User: Fold these one by one.
Assistant:
Number 1:
Amino acid sequence: MLDGLLLVALIVAKIIALVIGIIVIVLYLTYLERRIIGFMQARLGPNRVGPFGLLQPIADTVKLLGKEIIVPTASNRFLFLIAPIISFGTALAAWAVIPLDQGVVLANINAGALYTLAISSLGVYGIIIAGWASNSKYAMFGALRAAAQSISYEIAMGFSLVGVMMAANSLNFQQIVLAQTGGFWHWYWLPLLPLFIVFWISGVAETNRSPFDMAEGESELVAGFHVEYAGVTFALFFFAEYANMVLISALTSLFFLGGWLSPFEGIPYLQSWFAWVPGFVWFFIKFSFFLYCYLWFRATFPRYRYDQVMRLGWKVFIPITLIWIVVIGLAVQFHLGPWFSIEGMAS
Amino acid sequence: MILHLIFYAYALVAVASAVMVIASRNPVHSVLSLVVTFFAMAAVWMILHAEFLALILLLVYVGAVMTLFLFVVMMISVRQESRRKGFVRYLPFGILIVALIIGLVVIGIGPERFDLSHYPAPLLPGADYNNLTQLGSILYTDYVYPFEIAGVLLLAAIIAAITLAHRGPVQRKVQNPAAQVAVRREDRIRLVNMPVEKK
């Protein structure tokens, strides 16, 4: 009994550590977003609270927590309040299977990649319920756009995942990463290049970020599905969006950039010089790169038109993934080197 | 012991939300209750070591099919009172049908056919048991023809649905970037030489 309690306590401690880590990353992602986009647009961004404005996210959090939660009179009160909780919960639950290093993972399940896809597809309920329960035209249109977009791009993401699964012969994150061992040219970005690009762009569309932020197009819909939310309820949606960005970045680096594997593996001298760096650091650098790209896209690209978003998802990405799945099937079947040779598949 | 508690918790949620599907007045609440039912059933399947099926249930039914259900229900906005009309009138038929189904189920999978002597309790799978590979190897060896036939049927259904809904080519305003780039100043601007007008 005591052992069982200790085990539960250990798991809870791990969960709390992971959640606190995600919260800190999300807080500073919002800070970096404002700073980096500021520099890109030749202005300073927030630099008043603390040194270099580093305490700005904390000030923002306190402000949002202190604000009143306004529930519109004509809204459906129960669903209105439960929608941000669903968004927040699903954004965090997907992290249960993400490995940070070899063996450092909360739940090492066989169908881990499928689990993250399933949980992130639940996140769309938070958006639809929020849009419907607000009883507002703008919120409803935002919810419809967001939901249609994330369903469309989920198909392309799922097909890219099929390619990764065929190449790695597994859906377990540990095995997917370990199948990419042996230098950065063994990582799946090279043999699965079209799928990598499709997954990456679909990830941006899936999280409803710029240039695919049809759901909140300010000039058309004010702010989209969360237009009626204030205070903590808004903060939860905001948090869920950024946590999903971090999740997609982490997934992309696990599937295509070798997760925690060192980029200097297999290179003489450099490999031994950087052998002391823990795997977590490489993983952090890799997903930080994708997060930076999110901000870069936002500062660079104008917003897509809605029919263009749909055309890209259905008529460009899905055919590309379908063709490349066949290519990968042939490559795996005929042990095309250097990625799918016999000794590589044995691991 | 703990597994039993988890099972009963999810089973209770599944039954309660399934009742809510037919009992709630608001159609949107009904659909959301159905989502909760699916979720609880996925958890029960997970306890049965059917992790692949559970996750596919979440991904396909909860993630995609129920979202479309929700769309439809939100769009058509059913009058809430009209659903209550005729509740008492149809109640006897409902009870009759439910009794019939329960009777059939009891006769079909009663203890004389499905007790422990006919079907002994399955052995607990080992630590290296992989639901995914087991399912895949059975699906693509013993059941490969039913699997392929199901795939072809689905393809036929997709084509049929597209054919029914397709209304022929419409005049779409798709932009052609090549044509846009190829435009020259002379195509768009006509300079007119005009004498200055006096007031």
Note: Chain A touches chain B through 26 residues (CB under 8 Å).
Number 2:
Amino acid sequence: MSESVFLAETDLAARGVPSRYPAWLDVLQSATGLFLALFMWGHMFFVASILLGKTAMWSITRLFEGYFFLGASYPRLVSGVAACVFLVFVAHALLAARKFPLSYRQYRVMRAHTRAMRHEDSTLWMWQIYTGFSLFFLASAHLYQMLVWPQNIGPYASSDRIWSDGLWPFYLLMLLAVELHGGIGLYRLCVKWGWPRLSRGLLKKLKWALTAFFLTLGILTLAAYMKIGYEHRLNYGERYHPDTLPQWLLPFAPSGEFSDPPALPPAAEGKEA
Amino acid sequence: MSRQVIFNILRYNPQLPNVTPHLQRYLLEAADGMTLFIALNEIREHQDATLQFDFVCRAGICGSCAMLINGRPRLACRTLVADLPDENTLAPLPFFELIGDLSVNTGKWMRGMSERLSVWLHAQEMEVDTRRIEERMDAETAEAVYELDRCVECGCCVAACGTARMRPDFVGAVGLGKIARFRADPRDMREDADFYELIGDDTGVFGCMSLLACHDVCPKTLPLQTQIAFLRRKMAAQTIKSAGKKTSLR
Amino acid sequence: MKTVITDVLVIGGGLAGLRAAIGVRNRGHEALVLSLVPPKRSHSSAAQGGMQASLANVIRGQGDCEDIHFEDTVRGSDWGADQIVARMFVNTAPKAVRELAAWGMPWSRITAGDREVIINGQKTTLTERQDAHGLIAQRDFGGTKKWRTCYASDGTGHAMLFTVSDQAIRRGIAVRERVEALSLIHEGGRCYGAVARDLVTGEIFSCLAKATVIATGGAGRLYRVTTNAVICEGMGHALALETGVAPLGNMEAVQFHPTGIFPAGILVTEGCRGDGGVLRDAEGRRFMPDYEPEKKELASRDVVSRRMEEHIRKGNGVASRFGEHLWLDITQLGRRHIEHNLREVKEICESFLGIDPAEKWIPVRPAQHYTMGGVRTKYTGESPWLEGLFAAGEAACWDLHGFNRLGGNSVAETVVAGMIVGEFIADFCDDPNNSIDAPLTLAKTCVRREEDSLRALLASHGQENAFRLCAEMQEIMTRCMGIFRHADGLQDGMHHLQRLLQRSRDIGISGKSWGSNSELVAAYRVRRMLKLALTIAHGAYQRTESRGAHFREDFPQRNDREWLKRTLAFWPEEEATLPTLSYESLDVTKMELPPGWRGYGAKNHIEHPETEARQFAVERIRSHAQTQGKDRFTLQEQLMPYLECLPANLRGKNERLDEPLENEE
């Protein structure tokens, strides 16, 4: 075995060059967190497109599948994105786990501490631990789904999953966990690195405002999917296909899919039947 | 018009281990301008001579009397009874070695921290010719250094720190604040690489989880949040700058 | 029995003790510091305003030098000071400031150009010199001709203590915290160390050393209203007094600070007045110019305190439920100044009074502040009566302050004495004659005596309560030994104190714990405090004159003819209830500055028979030197040679902007 193994094993590694790992780990934890938080907000907006209508949501889904620039839908692209996010997510979880209470004793000390202190930022950290812990499972499950069945995204497909497959409690929980965790996390990133140079009071107000906004958006969105899912429960499994697209989007669609109106392709009737 | 105030005080003397830790209740008549310094001395002189606590300057200058007042670390001498509710709990600062009741050994920990982080000025020359006019320093720099030098080592920041509570080898805001103080001092010859050796790990600046209770409880209102963030940036930059170089940081 | 053996035992971990420890450590000797509290909590940290040293950097300090600092100090002392010591001190103070600067002390600095200040209630513009930019700044303080007080905002003592303490840590100097020295181990006129008690475990052990230093600060807690920390109980003074061999000097010289916050007695710095704050009465009128037209609020502390009390007696005090007080008004200094240069004052006002000093006046009344008296030593810091026993700082009477200390001279004295005495201790330890064969039998006897005494105390079923005795003593001291003293009050107070001392032999203790036991501590300390109180009372009663802070209403004149002498108090008999006093004359014929009017305060002293001749001689030497074009150093040398008294490394001249140092080695 190499020298470094024994140096590490005997705790003598620290006596020469100071390790750079802690710095890198801290920077990476922040970087992955920042990426995930920003991704999550973007993702929220994409998902919320359902509030603008089924066609909007369908278009965005297709966009990510390459439909508008590759000439056909490739759901594997979504798998690819999901895989990347999954990797970042796992990295973030690993890095952040360093900060978790590592034993029941530590957890108890911390809980007693935050209760006695009644100090908002310390209490928020506990929430970050709770939500972070739940995201180990919730986010993993969701990402796995997206990884394996990327084709199951769409106005009807998603709604069916949420309503008919009974996953809406899962999504509700995940929504709460993600928004709280991300919001608190971003706030903490700002105070941790001292940028942007706003007062903590202002940062915290911003944080709560953003969390409130995204939670509202998220709940409305979830409600919209639930409603669609409920209305569509009898046609479970059917996929959505819009009759037409907005004028400006048509040139991007693969040729033949959407002919100029009013001509209706015969296949479309069958689909919607 | 006198007001009766209840103090539930955590009693435990490690010298008498057969008596288990418990809250003991004391009733006291509040008086005008009464601080916890006056209140606790009154309890000790008239009700219970065995009660242990620490005061020195009783003017908020020396940092001896930090304790948990209703769960939060504060300087007892600067706490007016008039500002407290009718029932209160007093407990010793956690984290530090308990001497007895409200008295903890902050001095020992602080000295250990000072030695570990070598928080004294590392000047270029050890012996100066004191007959000569002193080195110059501009007034703003001097004031900025003094600002960070105001720490009284009371231990409030460490007792309030979730990180320190979970990981007792953490140097705490007091340690990081002192490093920031010497880093800001143009007379100190150390560079970021040197400071990195002292605080560039999870017991130092990268262990801090930014819960910021330190900043919020500091009785001297030191700018701990911005100083720790500043150190974190500098230490991270130090790592990134020297990435790829295989040589020692020295 | 546990025995610790070291080279130098330092009792007290404040500025003086730590600096002395560093001094001997630098010379290769081992030092052990015993401290009641962690050193950084020492009362040194409470010094706010600053430290006097004639750097002459600011424009208002231009022309300042050792000579003026010396004169201010001697005048301030009302000619009670040892002028050799004062000379040693003023020459070392600038070096101390510069050494501290090199050690990291964040002194406030000068910015060149115009700045607005308040002088005598008026806005004035000062223009700082270009070549002073970045040098250490000075502010105005009471009783000084020049702006001489170097400072770090108003946390000077704190910053100094942390700087020096960090240097002690750097040198690995061992400190035993929460340890109290109970008595000195001595035999045949030689001190061998001390018996100490661990305040946490109660363990009693002996510390043997070649040299023992008492650096325990003052004894303010003898009084009810004091600015002093609760640890300033004079236990170092008592250590020497209880040997029966080593005397205390000038214990009746007790300083009252004009601006203690009313009624708590917490200090607000003299810097408030130095920076332009004024005192006002019930009608909001500024009254000090009526009494002291020249120095006004910035006369020496004894004078200002006395004038304030006088003004209250005339019915001009502000009535409150705790009694009467006056106002300190710093509102005209402006918020910016207060938030930058008087931060501690602001915090104290907010926390203890709930007021903003930039908006409202601060209620103040004089409070006990400083113990000029102390363990009498030679200029080397060593007790002439007990070889190997040294003292430094407030606990010592070597005697820099005489009957009144100037503001800013106390923290200065701590480090300066630490530097000077530290060198002398190192010399003492270097001398092979002074090495000791650890006197273990003696140590054992001393430890056993303390153990037996504490056991007896714990076992006793006495009727008296230590806390109550202490409170009674403090009340008597504040009432009878305060700013105005009178034979009737002093006698009455002395009788009460004697009775208290007798009662203190019958203290009972409810908690029987051998370890941490505040009642036990109060019990053995109050006996010692009572002895000190009686030393003050007896000295004050006997001294039938008024000098500096010691003011006798029945003898309002300073009487150089009878009283140009230092009180020495011995306590040879344990069972006695009064100290034995003797006196040590000051030699007018050797004084560089013969007695005269101070420049403030009363102008009615009784001359010493030799004063006139000495004055004449001084004038002659002066004019002679002037006609011959001799520089001030030569003149000084002719008036009162002292340089030989300083340790060799501290004899050099001090460089100033206007006084460059020639390249001499």
Note: The first strand of chain C starts at residue 3 and ends at 11.
